[in-house]
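Our platform keeps sequence and structure together, in a single record for each protein. Such a record has a labelled line for the sequence and another for the backbone structure tokens. The tokens are whole numbers drawn from a learned vocabulary of local backbone shapes. The remainder of this section carries one protein's record, kept here as part of the documentation:
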Amino acid sequence: MLSQLKLLSSSRVKNPSKVTIFVAAALAAVFAVTLQAYLNRFLPSPYFFLFYPAALLVSWHFGFKPALLTIALCILSADFFYFPSSLSFRSHTLSEILALGFVGAATSFAAWIVSALDRKQRVATLAQNELETILRSVGDAVIVVDRNKRVVFLNPVAERLTGWRLEDARGQWMGTVFNIIDQKTRKSAENPAEQVLANAAVAGLMNHTLLISKDGVERQIENSAAPIVMSANDGTAGVVLVFRDVSDRYAAEAAAREAKASAERAQAELHAFFMQAPTPMVILTGPEHRFALANPMYEKYVSREVLGKTLRECFTNEEVGYYLPILDKVYQTGEPYIGRELPLTLWDPDGKARELRIDVSYTAFKDGEGRIKGVLVFVQDVTEQYNARARMEEKNRELELAKEHAETASSLKSAFLANMSHEIRTPLGAMLGFADLLRDPGLSVSERASYTEILSRNGQNLSLIINDILDLSKVEAGHLTLEMSEMKPRSIAEDVVSLLRVKAVEKNLVFEFVCDDSTPTTIVSDPLRVHQILLNLIGNSVKFTSFGSVTVRSFGRKTATGKTAVCFEISDTGIGIPTQHRAKVFEMFVQADGSMTRKYGGTGLGLALSKKLAQELGGDIVLSHSEVGKGSTFVVTIEDRSEIRIKVLDSKRERPPHRRPEPDALRGLKVLVVDDSPDNRHLIWHYLTKHGAIVDSAENGVLGFRKALANNFDIVLMDLQMPEMDGYAATLKLRDVGYGIPIIALTAHAMSEVSQKCLKVGCSAHLPKPIDSVQLITTILELIHPQTSGASN
């Protein structure tokens, strides 16, 4: 192809017109006649036959008709110049012979020159046609420019991407046709052709470049350029620009990165759920049943550390011999197992045996290809219930009611274990499976984007389940902290309806919100919890309604004590609730019909949690009407609690939401990260270095204490739960020796008492896990630059 490009750049020959052809033929004949006339003085005989063939040879290159013209001119001139009335012949002198040879050689040389030019023209034309054919079939966009930076050629792909047609672009300055800017700065980018012409060398692949077409469309491209070199003496004759549209690929890669980050956050939330769950939970992997994850409740319950060990390494055959065959069967067949009030004997470190009764749930989880990876285990201690029932059974048929209550409680817990195992296993199995599939380097861009979207979606679902369980645990334990402030009921209801409208439209439901004139403009309550209650109830109506409508109506009323309250009435045309099940819909871990869990999903926590939250806010939730097959109506009441308003500092009240920090917001700051989890350290390192920070780390409180004193850090991030020395002790020890640098506590425990304890030992701030990168960077800036951080938010 290089030879064709050279010819294309150096050859500017055009096909001659007919007039030019005939003029050239006539001039060739006249030239021959003139020479012959001049030599006639020396040659008395008619030697025109020696020169006229040369003229004929020249004109023959232009075609048959020009050759006939030359013959005619030669005959006429011969008759006019060379045929006297009488002919005489004589011998030629040496000078005559030399003159005759010189004229013949000159005429032949002229014919050769014309023939060579014609041949070069024909070769150049063929090369140009061949090159254009090749370049038009290239899959990438190609632009050829000459050494004067003028466009010579565009292939069809380049025409489509630049918006310029070849006939319009030819002769234009290259910057007009190939208009590029830097993606980040939005300023004009250096044209790679400029580099090639300046350096006579190939300009390598360039990224982060936007091409602006003639009609203003922007496309992200990768481009390179190469010189067209005729010879060492001629230098660069032109440049070949090659580029391609990579907008879709870059968008898919960005989506993949975001989905991966979402999956990492979901996994962090899953880990937090395991660590905070109020019931013993473990994940066993492989046929040897190795403990991949175990929460503190489990290790406390069995009185031993198990993480990373196999079941046989942690327990004697007497302790777990009954359970091993069951676990083997679940791992081999994938069939779940639920056991109730099973016997378990555990030996404490002091040699004392504990006789226990437990409910267990064993559920296999699989990867994306359907292969079983391990078993998810839930354990519930029902020893007290079992012993209580046993004692009742020893008494007379008067204690039967208590017995039935205990059985019902046990049944509910077992149903909860089974339901939770299913709800957690479903997104967890998908996340583990598709994370494994993403390791395949041969995946296409579309496959990678699809898998990462699945990871993100399942991570979000798992996060919602975990949040409901943790919130319910806080309510039951009395640790729920309410933040009362002035709120607008109408705005909150409209926000929830807006969030759920897409799902309603997908199901072709009539979905509307009606705000009655009696609705209070403002009340004092916890807006976050009111939003959560409405999201649960309205979301249920949309989920359980296949056709028809969902209507939300707000109105105001006075309570029995004379206080103002706002009410939200949620009506739907869904499946309805049978009469015999209406009393159970607000119980924890229960849905009206067990088949609903299998068909619609869910943990059965939504209504129970919402009712408890409404009661905490001084209101309630009631099922006012329901009919099977025709729908249900729930009414939420939220009381105005202005008498217990919690005062919020003006700076916190007036501060707008955090904006995403600038890319170099932490440039030059030295940060120490103290965390026993390598994954957490790597994640936080990524967040901080991305914004310009210099990061060092330590894996426990002892090393963190030493590094903090030995180096000049600007801020310390301290995990609270670590081996050897936890974050509380390390922070307290640093403050005792006069360490004045800000320390931010990081913990998976989001309880208010944890935050208070952090502040008491000397922490400057407290952030919950999973880490919100924007909140982390903003908090660091507020502590490092307290006078200016508020202005940047």
